[in-house]
Amino acid sequence: MNVPLLDLKAQHVQIRDAVLQKLQQVVEEQAFILGQPVQDLEVRIAALSHAKHGIGVASGTDGLLLPLKALDLKPGDEVITSPFTFFATAGAIHNAGARPVFADIDPHTYNLEPAAVEAAITPRTRAILPVHLYGQMAALERLVPLARNRGVALIEDACQAIGARRKVDGEWRTAGELGTATSFSFFPSKNLGGWGDGGMVVTSDDRMGERVRRLRTHGGAKLYHHDEVGVNSRLDALQAAVLLAKLPYLQSWSEARRANAAWFCEALKSVAAVRTPVTDPLNEHIFHQYVIEAERRDALQAHLKAKGIGTAIYYPVPLHLQPCFAYLGYAAGQFPVAEAASHRVLALPVYPELTEAQQAYVAGAIREFYA
After folding, report:
1. How far is it, in rounded angstroms, from Cα 98 to Cα 119?
2. What domains appear along the chain, each with residue ranges and CATH number?
3. pLDDT per position in the chain (371 positions), as tens?
4. How far apart are CA 332 and CA 341, in angstroms?
5. Cβ pair 41, 244 in contact under 8 A
6. Strands (E), 45-159
């Protein structure tokens, strides 16, 4: 049996007509850059996130970079983030002109540990950048007040967490609702994925929204008039059309992912060498990834590959140990939780279209390895 890590063909079969209809509308209009589909998507994603503004950009990476640029960071300014995340998080900080400062993670959720963030704050701190890793939100009820009390911005990296929710002070809050600005990614593998790169910034800060909107079009709010030097980072109409066709399915897809995750947690609970994902009781997890911790992880991955089962390691090298960040002066051992996770984590298939037979096959192969 073959069980890929993600099966976009299975998804496409279900939504083909809806997507092609939306695409055909763009083709007939022959308006491909920004335009009405992008504006419609911006309104819909902002509403989903309980934010005032949505600004379509070229990627989730740019969705981080542009809000950071809008902070007018200067050499020596610091932005605190996680060492256990996709490279773009810290790369955007560097490219915005600031210095990435890492803080260790919670051993259960892999999200930033607020106490570690507080310890990392200095007079040079300009922002805190938590990552809602794998699809569950960081502890914003602690991080938002921390940022507010220190007078710094809080930029949410929600590239893996569109539609995720967390109870904050007894109320459900959505990814994108509480931060100064938030980035979503529409990379094809995401819960809401396009047919190429794409991203969205959401914010309820009017000045931030205006600035990001200007920065994405070479720094000009009016054609051929430039207030500053920006970049070319526009979400195109074809990607917006695909995303608008998929958006009505997002909630049911995330529910299916939660159901599949619950099934795996039950099926693997008797395997002592495996720790299944921990969902913070305050979170509604969207399971962009279903990530276990496993003894002899690399050997297990090889075993599953031989069985035709797709897996991935998110992430094998923490960012503070990447060669490009050697200039920051970090050393092995400084972030022990992140480093330990990098040696143990393994993502299993969790996509909505998984069949019961495929799930049973994956769980059986894991039990077989540890028998």
Report:
1. 19
2. 8-248 (3.40.640.10), 249-370 (3.90.1150.10)
3. 999 999 999 999 999 999 999 999 999 999 889 889 999 999 999 999 999 999 999 999 999 999 999 999 999 999 999 999 999 999 999 999 999 999 999 999 999 999 999 999 999 999 999 999 999 999 999 999 999 999 999 999 999 999 999 999 999 999 999 999 999 999 999 999 999 999 999 999 999 999 999 999 999 888 888 989 999 999 999 999 999 999 999 999 999 999 999 999 999 999 999 999 999 999 999 999 999 999 999 999 999 999 999 999 999 999 999 999 999 999 999 999 999 999 999 999 999 999 999 999 999 999 999 99
4. 13
5. yes
6. 53-57, 78-81, 99-102, 125-129, 153-157
Indicate the pTM of the whole model. Answer: 0.96
What is the C-alpha to C-alpha distance for residues 173 and 108, in angstroms, rounded to an integer? 21
Specify the residue for token string 């913070």.
280
Place of tokens 């919670």: 106
Q: Which amino acid appears at position 16 of this protein?
A: R
